[in-house]
Each structure stands twice: as structure tokens, then as C-alpha cells.
Amino acid sequence: MAGTDAKKSDDRDTWNHTTPVTFSPLFDWPPSPKDILLTLTKRWVTLTRNVLFLLMAWLVYRVSLQDLTTFQSLSANWILPVFLRNFLFMTLIAGGLHLYLFTLRAQGKKLKYDHRDDLEKSGKFSFRNQVWDNVFWSLASGATTWSLYETFYLWALANRMVPSFAITDHPFIFVAWLLILPVLTSSHFYLVHRLLHWPPLYKRVHRLHHRNIHIGPWSGMSMHPVEHVIYLSSVLVHFVLPSHPVLMLVHLYSRSLGPAFSHSGFEKLLVKDTAIFDSADFHHQLHHRFFECNYGTVDAPWDRWFGSYHDGSDEATRRVREQRKRMYRSKPAD
């Protein structure tokens, strides 16, 4: 738990986390210009997964997307490489993190939120194995849906059906996109995530993702196909507002590959006890533990505004558990 509550006698509630969950200062009042500037720029000028996604997007754009006429007609000649590239990226990122953290146990339990060593082997998962279940849904549905969105965008862009701009003509718009994207995706995620917790959708769709309580890198994109379509729909903003292929790819990578980091279960990635960059998201880890809290991310304080906030403290745990008890008592019997 947070602060002095970091260790409890009940192992199920032991979290190797020493600071409370805090939201981005962008929406604090009174505003702090220094904190706002640091928040807006830190993720793009320091070693973060966001910089990794930006570099990946730029390389893909430079190597594969220069000639847009290639995409004017739907053809396996260019669609298949899109799918293969994205399947490879998913395997390298999620598989690499799983290999490093769970197979090789390269940093042991240092900065691991959950005390348990292994992911589950249970009949509730496909193949009776959480890892293989997560791999299947992440690739067969997650990478496929991601690739379909990307294919549709490239085809529409090549046929001038979506607005776009050149970075050289509008560099400030490009930078503004990068700064706004985290708030945009956080807000979209909160809204669709609350929708997915609506009982009919939860029972038929979102429950598949929530089979993962002790989460790992492959858990992030382990979802029902309907959820993948809804979750990735935030990229549709690039179909209506002037954008650029690099921005679309960064957006897709953050939504599709980012969950491998945020669900890794470790607060930071370490190499020989040196923190390389932030990894998992304790805010979302708590959601997988308690379900009815922390529907969004810390980039926009929707959970704080709507009272669904869990900061990792004992007090918040008691409050959330009380809310769940009242919720389940009020539900009619099936």
C-alpha cells in the first residue's frame, strides 16, 4: 500500500509500492506552470516507452510509408506486411517483457506490485494456462484489430479521404498532437472502460480481460474482440482531424503495446539495480485487484472527479470494498 502502509500481514494485500497514486498536475488548481511544463515534456525528452513508440513510428514511416500510392488499392502485397509487422512488435514487446520479468526473473521481485511468483494455471483460462490464454487473445484478436485500424487509415489516407498535414509545414501542430494525445487517450479510456463495466457488456465482453488479477505483460491486450474494437476506437480521431501517419502510429503503439508495460506488474524495469524507465501502472494494477475503481489513467483525473479513485491506501481499500458490498447487495438475483 501507499507510504507506511506498504506492508500488510495479509499477503493478498501486499503491494511493493511506496508512494500514493497521484494524477497529472495539468488539472490542479491553482495551476503550477513548472509542474505542467515538466509533465507535458518529460515523456518525450527522457527515456520512456513513449519515446520508444515515437522512434518506432518514425522508423516505420521512413522505411515503409513514404509512397502512399502503394495503399490506394486494398492488396495483400501491403496489407500482409502491416499485419506481420504488428504481430512481430507485439511478440517482441510483450514477449520480451514476459521473458525478462517472469521467465528469467531478471530483477526478482524488486519493484513488483504483487507478491506471487507465477501467473495462473486454471480452468478459467483458455488452454488452462493464463500466459497462453493471454498470448492467444493479444495476437489473434488484439494485433489483428490494431492492424485493421492501421490498414483502414493508410488506405483512407492514400485516397485523400482523411485530412493530413506535413510535419515540415506545421511542426507546432505535430508537437501539440504529441502533448495532447495522453489526455485524449486517457479520457477516451475512462469513458469506454466505464461502459465496459456496464453489467451486460462486462458479462459478455470485459470479463475476459478481468480473468487476469495477477497480471503480466501479455495480460494488457488480452481482451474480447468487441473490447478491442471499442478500446482502440480512440484512433478514429485521426480520421476527422488533420494528422500525420507518425502520429497515428504513435497512437496505435501506445494503445496496443503500452498495455504490455502497464500490465507488467513491476513499477520500473531494472538492469543491475538501475531503473531504466517506468513500467507498470499502479493505478491500473489496483483496478485489476478491486475492479470497481480506477477506470481511467493518471493522465486525466476522471476517477477523482467521479469518485472512483483508489490511491493505494488502506482507507481507499476499505471505501472501495464498502462500495462493492453495497453494489452487489443492490443487484437483483439472476
Mean pLDDT figure: 90
Number of domains: 1
Number of E strands: 2
Distance linking N and C termini: 35 Å
Distinct helical segment count = 12
Task: Tell me the strand percentage band.
Answer: under 5%
- State the low-pLDDT regions, or none: 1-15
Question: What characterizes the major β-sheet?
Answer: 2 strands, antiparallel
Q: Secondary-structure element order, as H and E?
A: HHHHHHHHHEEHHH
> Which bin fits the share of residues in helices?
40-55%
- Specify Rg, calculated over alpha carbons: 20 Å
Biggest sheet strand order reads 1-2
* Overall 3D shape: globular
Structural class: mainly alpha
Report on this model:
This protein has helices at residues 33-45, 49-64, 76-103, 130-158, 171-196, 199-204, 225-231, 245-256, 258-262, 282-290, 302-305, 314-330, and strands at 268-271, 274-278. It has one domain. It has a two-stranded antiparallel sheet with strand order 1-2. The model is unreliable at 1-15 (pLDDT under 50). The radius of gyration is 20 Å and the shape is globular. The protein is mainly α and 334 residues long. It is built from 12 helices and 2 strands; from the N terminus they run H-H-H-H-H-H-H-H-H-E-E-H-H-H. Strand 1 and strand 2 (274-278) form a beta hairpin.
